[in-house]
Each structure stands twice: as C-alpha cells, then as structure tokens.
Amino acid sequence: MKFHKLLVFMMVFSLAVISSPTFAQDDDDDDDGEMVEEEMDEEMWQAQMDEYTAGKQI
What pTM does this model have? Predict the structure, then answer.
C-alpha cells in the first residue's frame, strides 16, 4: 500500500512540474484590448533615444 501512495505522489508531482512551464509562457495575445505597435522610423527612434538619454543624465 505504501508503494501505491508513493507512486501516486510521484505521478502528481511530475505532472505539476511538467505543466508549470506551459502556463508560464502565456503571452496573452488573445486579449480583447489589443495594443497595436507601430514600427518606428529613424526620426522617432532618435527622438526617443534623446529623451531617454536626457532622463538618464538628470
């Protein structure tokens, strides 16, 4: 009887360990309020870099 309990415990534990990375990789792409990212051009990128650099120097 002890062997059966140990076997069941090991099966449940291994199932929990194997399934946890699956849930951790959920990226929530199926949300209703999707944010659409627009691609930056060079001017927008430079403006953002200047803003971040100015904030870092303060």
Answer: 0.34
